[in-house]
Amino acid sequence: MNLVTLDLEGVLIPEMWVAFADAAGMPELRRTTRDEPDYDKLMRYRLDILGRAGVKLEDIQKVIEGLEPLEGALEFLNWLKSRTRVVILSDTFEQFVDPLMRKLGYPTLFCHSLNVGADGFIDGYTIRCRDHKRLSVEGFRKLNFKVFSAGDSYNDLSMLRAADRAVLFRPTDSFAAQNSDLPVAKTHAELRGIFGAFMDGQEVVR
Amino acid sequence: MNLVTLDLEGVLIPEMWVAFADAAGMPELRRTTRDEPDYDKLMRYRLDILGRAGVKLEDIQKVIEGLEPLEGALEFLNWLKSRTRVVILSDTFEQFVDPLMRKLGYPTLFCHSLNVGADGFIDGYTIRCRDHKRLSVEGFRKLNFKVFSAGDSYNDLSMLRAADRAVLFRPTDSFAAQNSDLPVAKTHAELRGIFGAFMDGQEVVR
Questions:
Q1: Inter-chain CB proximity B1 and A142 less than 8 Å
Q2: Which of A134, A135, A110, A115 shows the shortest CA–CA distance to A126?
Q3: Residues 55-114 (A) with a CB less than 8 A from some CB of B
Q4: Which residues, 6+ apart, have CB-to-CB distance to A187 below 8 Å?
Q5: pTM
Q6: CA–CA separation, A34 vs B57, rounded Å?
Q7: What average pLDDT score do residues A86-105 get?
Q8: Using CA atoms, how far apart are residues B32 and B30, in angstroms rounded to an integer?
Q9: Is this prediction's ipTM beyond 0.90?
């Protein structure tokens, strides 16, 4: 029996920090895990900028309320859920992502949470479980699932490598080059084709 | 961060074997895990009856196509998905349950599979993972989720006891008596109230 794990930002929804950076005119917040492999370093960098600029959680949430899932993502996800079980493994925070989860029909999401003060400022964050993408995949495999994964960046690598089969979705050129053994999908239609082939036990090469 | 695991039959959808037994006029198939705690014994009993009666998988699927989720189950599930993450842990078989999963919006389901011959008869079944309900809950807790569970019968007991907090949904009198420390919900509204209290960290006593 199969189970699919998906990264969220860049695969089903836009990069939320990038969207906020553009909406707020704060280009220094455009850095993502695609640019900075050290997640804690990236988050300290982001929260430091927000604190100095006086940005509250609600300011970010207002921007995210206006975002939509990536084009074709909902149809892809609905197709995938009808064929197998899907768990989204993301390093996002539940307080950010709720409006977009609603638009995706509330798929099963494993992520982290923000620490928000009574004044509405983000004081910090709680990583629910370090390296949870890899540990989740390993846990599902121990439950005798064959696990197929898709992701786009550095924080997906341990998940992709722990899975039975993996695919890169719209990776950066450098990430694709560093993982040249993995197939690449540039559209949700291609991703659907590759997962279909995985489920049918067919070979897929780049 | 919370995660809810739910039994399926009797909690969100009708007992499928009972529904088939009634539709096919085969009352000997009305036995469920609520009556027989030994699941392998129950399944051998069921498949033996089907084989002798010449019943194929498609005969059972036709009946299940006509079933609906329990009244209020879809609204309950949608509310729960909007508040937390939900994984359904069931000892059903994926070939049986697909039409009802569609009607529930394809929630994440961990279950087993039937072995079906080229002639369409059910030759046997593959338990994906023995005691998977308990092992799944233990796995989710290792990923630092606080796990809340609901179930109605003997095959849920190890799941309910592995969870941080548990509730019985419409249990038999004997199952309720044997687990008198657990709260009981008789309706989905009551179940919603109890899960809400769990999420808010409140005490719930029967």
A1: no
A2: A115
A3: 78, 81-82, 85-87, 94, 102, 105-113
A4: A72
A5: 0.94
A6: 48
A7: 94
A8: 6
A9: yes
